[in-house]
């Protein structure tokens, strides 16, 4: 211990000297440039160089299958097959250069610092790696048809559309060594990690905080649990991938502690500095430490050769990470990764991992490293990795990354070697020989030249190599060729790629710690920074003593502390959990069944609820009607009898009805819901004629025909003779109460049905009524003849026919309770019997078609004169005009407008001082305002045509009721054509708008369908999802347009208001 204290004090002095700043920087008022987290503006001429989401740099020509974007290597062997041949072998062989496991895992820190180019894009591009039948890992049951999932990397969407601009993947980290692994690439992210006190990062007991702030860390499924765990369990660190394995978590913790240690020392040295000054100074030294360690300690240990010396900042050099480096060369480090991590303490005692095993096995801790590090001290992991030798530098990968790498839930274990090969093809890397040529190396001429020593010791491997690639030297994957040429160190191709990459990153970085022109560090500080090694950071950031680990932590040599007890071998470790595809249905059987049952019952429940609501409404309606009937019955003080039966409407239709007798002298027919169908009044008759059917041998139900004057017949069908007898007794009693007689007779059933005047027959009789009236008044057109009634004399039928008020209103196309109908009916019904006879109707038609104007005005005057006193007042005239407004069904003419119109008419006629109009005054007014009055009548949309407009009526009634004889001989196809042309003519405006709507909708669908089928091949969506993506996107475009039109229905009132306002503006103008 006496020897350790002075050394640690020396280190402390060194660290303090590093943060001792020249006078200019110690002054808070002096400004110096702060390096951005996202990598922008490092190069002033090209500010986006090296920034987040910049493209990978392509040093070799792209070699996509189609020259643009499709994955390369379609004619090469399967990636899994190549991995089994060249990367599967004996585990547990130690490093030839005595590299430690700490070097192997520190390579992930370096990767996280400068590149992240394997994450999938959006939308996901899914490809499959074929798995050979009977594969020992992925198809042990020899089922065949097995595939390993592979997702293509995110890329710049502006590329991959032509051979001149092939697909270029993007780097989601900065290309600079700027502490991205520690601080992330986002200021918001790093702010979530900061404590904002004395420049430190938030921690608890020397450990990072958990991700309770939900920073977007990667949270892949844990393969040995086969499920997603909470993201809040993860440690909140700078790189989203840090929680992948225990070793990577360890380095994240160490570097966070190193920052806090520097911030504490800076605060002691400069207590007047603000939190931001302390944080930025500590960050600056952390970045410089990483730059020095990576370039001058790690890379020489990794390659076996140093980098060229630094000659100063070169702004013309691009720092971008190359495709060859990201997906091939720097993945050489995967061969160094051991299957597990040893744990030891300061006394060289190798401890047990959680679970009682000798080491922390990687395949059992993927994406669960935070849980392991909560149970194991950081110091034991670091000392174990410093003493543990890495795997041998060859083409082989240990089983934990070759067969048991983490994967998605549907394929929990994958092969890292196969993924590396596929990643090179995804990025469009050329063949191995082409890559050598572009990096200044001679092409190999034979397979043996790639690694003569390897193939001499393993001739079978050479034969397999030649055979699998069909003897084609110019078709070898870069990753396979580069791995096979390695002997103790990366081969010459990988070495050239890695040296080129790190040299460009260093020389292009304006903020590089050795650049004395950027004003960040003094020459003395630069010299001190060059002395910092990873050993210094570990010793000053943890409880590890200077003598507990060797100074060259990347190598273990004889005489260094605590040699490893044995080289770890996967066969001596607990087995990895086997490959298993996640079954999303497993454990949800009952939930699925109940969900299906609920979904199945939802329509039934909705229908039941709707039926219940309808029944409730009907019940309430029936109760209300019963209450109204009780009140009515109480008013008449009579009994009410009801009977359920069937009404015979015509030969092909019957309906179930309820017949109610009284309480007033009327028969009421309602449907089952209680809605009134018709009423047969009995006020105008003293005798009711009833016919009952004679019962024969047939089994048909008995009939009852009720014939009332001025009404069409009511034909009822009852269940039995007894029911009919009971009904007749009740009917007779009802009529006796109202002092009316029942005239009962019998007739054959067929005769009753043949002679019954049903509603349909009554309608035909009324049509004949109108035809005859207009034929007598206007005559027949040339070539036309009067249709004859086959059953009886037409003149006698017409003369006996009379119109009720409802039939008269129906003829006018109006409602029976309309004021205009009542007034007009009273005028036409001269004898006041409540019916319009044929003669009365004929006289009215003749009067309006051929009568003098004075006669027509007299009728209108009489219609306005309600009390028949020979004069009309403003109230009576207002009532008449309001009835016309009601017929027109418009809201644009309000009551105040009607009053204003009447006052104006009186004023213009010089009658403003009169409250009553005589007939002569009315004639004067109509003479002055005849045009306006007739215009109001013409605008009445309640009727089919204005009854007062004789010209239009003549045309309508003649064309409707007089059928030319030539129509009867036309072919049915011509008639159908006439119907079609008439329909198109009447609906041409609606058809036009529908045509525009469907053209736009179909056009949007076709445009999107064509775009995703033929115009976006570079997106590779059609290859992944087939024609379905084109149909889906086309439908989405059409639906989006249709949804926008729904706003029109919601804006109906607004559109009406705007229309009225626009009309008013036009009137004013």
Task: Please specify the SSE layout and strand pairing.
Layout: H1 4-18, H2 23-26, E1 54-55, H3 79-86, H4 101-114, E2 126-131, E3 146-151, E4 170-171, H5 180-183, H6 187-193, E5 203-204, E6 207-208, H7 246-269, H8 275-303, H9 323-327, E7 340-341, E8 360-361, H10 369-373, H11 378-387, H12 399-402, E9 405-406, E10 413-414, H13 416-426, H14 432-438, H15 452-457, H16 459-468, H17 478-484, H18 492-508, H19 523-529, H20 534-541, H21 589-636, E11 641-650, E12 653-661, E13 666-670, E14 676-681, E15 687-693, E16 703-707, E17 714-717, H22 721-737, E18 741-747, H23 749-755, H24 759-778, H25 794-800, E19 802-803, H26 805-812, H27 819-828, E20 836-837, H28 838-850, H29 853-864, E21 872-873, H30 874-888, H31 895-908, E22 916-917, H32 919-928, H33 930-938, H34 950-961, H35 972-986, H36 988-1015, H37 1021-1025, H38 1027-1050, H39 1052-1068
Parallel strand pairs: 15-18
Antiparallel strand pairs: 1-4, 2-3, 5-6, 7-8, 9-10, 11-12, 11-17, 12-13, 13-14, 15-16, 16-17, 19-20, 21-22
Please give the number of β-strands.
Answer: 22
Main sheet, how many strands, which sense, barrel?
A: 8 strands, mixed
Number of domains: 4
Helix and strand content put the structural class at alpha+beta
CATH T-level fold name of the largest domain: Myeloperoxidase, subunit C
Total of helices: 39
Residues in helix, % = 40-55%
Averaged pLDDT, please?
A: 84
CATH class of the largest domain: Mainly Alpha
GO molecular function, one term: peroxidase activity
Keywords: Heme, Iron, Membrane, Metal-binding, Oxidoreductase, Peroxidase, Signal, Transmembrane, Transmembrane helix
InterPro entries: DUOX_peroxidase (IPR034821), EF_Hand_1_Ca_BS (IPR018247), EF_hand_dom (IPR002048), Haem_peroxidase_animal (IPR019791)
Transmembrane segments: 591-614, 991-1011, 1023-1048
């Amino acid at each position: 211990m006496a020897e350790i204290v002075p050394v640690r004090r020396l280190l402390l002095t060194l660290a303090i000297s590093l943060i001792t700043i020249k006078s200019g920087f110690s002054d808070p008022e002096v400004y110096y440039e702060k390096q951005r987290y996202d990598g922008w503006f490092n190069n002033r001429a090209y500010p986006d160089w090296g920034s987040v989401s910049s493209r990978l740099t392509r040093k070799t020509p792209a070699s996509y299958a189609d020259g643009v974007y499709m994955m390369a290597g379609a004619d090469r062997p399967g990636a899994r097959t190549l991995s089994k041949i060249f990367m599967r072998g004996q585990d547990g062989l130690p490093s030839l250069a005595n590299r430690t496991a700490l070097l192997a895992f520190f390579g992930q820190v370096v990767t996280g610092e400068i590149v992240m180019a394997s994450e999938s894009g959006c939308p996901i591009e899914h490809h499959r790696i074929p798995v050979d039948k009977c594969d020992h890992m992925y198809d042990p049951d020899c089922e065949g048809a097995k595939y390993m999932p592979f997702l293509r990397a995110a890329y710049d969407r502006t590329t991959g559309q032509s051979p001149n601009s092939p697909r270029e993947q993007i780097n989601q980290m900065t290309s600079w060594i700027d502490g991205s692994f520690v601080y992330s690439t986002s200021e918001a992210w790093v702010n979530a990690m900061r404590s904002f006190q004395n420049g430190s990062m938030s921690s608890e007991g020397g450990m990072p905080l958990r991700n309770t702030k939900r920073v977007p860390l990667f949270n892949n499924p844990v393969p040995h649990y086969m499920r997603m765990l909470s993201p809040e369990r993860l440690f909140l660190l700078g790189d989203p991938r840090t929680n992948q394995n225990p070793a990577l978590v360890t380095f994240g913790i160490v570097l966070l502690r190193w920052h806090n240690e520097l911030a504490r020392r800076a605060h002691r040295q400069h207590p007047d500095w603000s939190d931001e000054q302390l944080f930025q100074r500590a960050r600056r030294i952390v970045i410089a430490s990483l730059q020095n360690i990576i370039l001058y300690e790690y890379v020489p240990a990794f390659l076996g050769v140093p980098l060229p010396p630094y000659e100063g900042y070169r702004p013309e050099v691009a720092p971008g990470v190359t495709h060859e480096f990201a997906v091939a060369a720097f993945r050489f480090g995967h061969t160094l990764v051991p299957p597990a991590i040893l744990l030891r303490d300061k006394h060289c005692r190798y401890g047990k991992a959680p679970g009682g095993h000798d080491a922390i096995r990687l395949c059992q801790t993927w994406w669960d490293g935070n849980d392991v590090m909560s149970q194991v001290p950081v110091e034991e992991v670091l000392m174990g990795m410093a003493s543990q030798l890495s795997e041998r530098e060859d083409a082989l990968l240990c089983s934990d990354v070759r067969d048991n790498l983490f994967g998605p839930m549907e394929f929990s274990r994958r092969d890292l070697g196969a993924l590396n090969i596929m990643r090179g093809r995804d990025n469009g890397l050329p063949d191995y020989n082409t890559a050598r040529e572009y990096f200044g190396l001679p092409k190999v001429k034979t397979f043996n030249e790639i690694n003569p020593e390897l193939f001499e010791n393993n001739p079978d491997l050479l034969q397999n190599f030649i055979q699998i690639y069909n003897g084609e030297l110019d078709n070898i994957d870069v990753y396979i060729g580069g791995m096979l040429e390695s002997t103790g160190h990366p081969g010459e191709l990988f070495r050239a790629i890695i040296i080129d990459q790190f040299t460009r990153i260093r020389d292009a970085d304006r903020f590089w710690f050795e650049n004395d022109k950027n004003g960040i560090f003094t020459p003395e500080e630069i010299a001190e920074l060059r002395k910092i090694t990873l050993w210094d950071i570990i010793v000053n950031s943890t409880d590890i003593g200077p003598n507990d680990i060797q100074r060259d932590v990347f190598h273990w040599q004889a005489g260094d502390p605590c040699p490893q007890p044995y080289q770890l071998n996967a066969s001596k470790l607990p087995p990895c959990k086997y490959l298993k595809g996640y079954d999303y249905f497993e454990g949800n059987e009952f939930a699925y069944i109940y969900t299906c049952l609920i979904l199945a019952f939802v329509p039934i429940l909705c229908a039941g609820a709707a039926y219940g609501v309808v029944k409730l409404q009907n019940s309430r309606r029936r109760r209300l009607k019963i209450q109204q009937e009780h009140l009515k019955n109480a008013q008449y003080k009579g009994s009410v009898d009801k009977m359920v039966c069937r009404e015979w409407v015509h030969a092909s239709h019957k309906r179930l009805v309820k017949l109610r007798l009284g309480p007033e002298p009327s028969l009421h027919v309602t449907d089952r819901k209680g809605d009134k169908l018709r009423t047969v009044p009995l006020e105008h008759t003293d005798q009711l004629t009833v016919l009952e059917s004679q019962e024969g041998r047939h089994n048909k139900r008995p009939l009852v025909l009720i014939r009332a004057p001025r009404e069409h017949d009511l034909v009822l069908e009852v269940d039995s003779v007894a029911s009919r007898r009971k009904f007749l007794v009740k009917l007779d009693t009802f009529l006796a109460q109202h002092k009316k007689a029942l005239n009962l007779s019998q007739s054959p059933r067929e005769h009753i049905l043949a002679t019954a005047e049903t509603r349909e027959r009554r309608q035909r009789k009324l049509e004949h009524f109108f035809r005859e009236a207009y034929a007598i008044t206007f005559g027949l057109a040339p070539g036309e003849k009067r249709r004859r009634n086959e059953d009886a004399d037409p003149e006698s039928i017409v003369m006996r026919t009379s119109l009720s008020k409802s039939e008269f209103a129906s003829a006018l196309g109006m409602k029976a309770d309309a004021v205009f109908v009542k007034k007009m009916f009273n005028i036409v019904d001269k004898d006041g019997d409540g019916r319009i006879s044929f003669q009365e109707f004929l006289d009215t038609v003749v009067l309006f078609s051929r009568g003098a104007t004075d006669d027509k005005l007299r009728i209108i005057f009489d219609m306005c004169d309600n009390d028949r006193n020979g004069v009309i007042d403003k109230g009576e005239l207002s009532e008449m005009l309001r009835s016309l407004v009601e017929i027109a069904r418009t809201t644009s003419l309000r009551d105040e407008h009607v009053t204003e119109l009447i006052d104006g008419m009186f004023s213009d006629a010089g009658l403003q001082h009169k409250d009553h109009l005589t007939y002569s005054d009315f004639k004067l007014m109509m003479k002055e305002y005849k045009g306006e009055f007739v215009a109001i009548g013409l605008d009445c949309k309640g009727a089919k045509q204005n009854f007062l407009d004789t010209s239009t009526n003549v045309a309508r009634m003649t064309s409707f009721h007089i059928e030319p004889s030539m129509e009867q001989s036309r072919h049915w196809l011509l008639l159908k054509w006439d119907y079609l042309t008439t329909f198109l003519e009447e609906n041409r405006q609606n058809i036009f708008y529908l045509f525009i709507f469907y053209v736009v909708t179909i056009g949007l669908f076709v445009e999107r369908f064509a775009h995703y089928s033929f115009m976006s091949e570079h997106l590779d969506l059609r290859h992944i999802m087939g024609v379905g993506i084109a149909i889906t996107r086309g439908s989405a475009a059409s639906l989006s347009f249709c949804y926008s039109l729904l706003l029109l229905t919601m804006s109906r009132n607004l559109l009406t208001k705007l229309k009225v306002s626009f009309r008013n503006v036009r009137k004013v103008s």
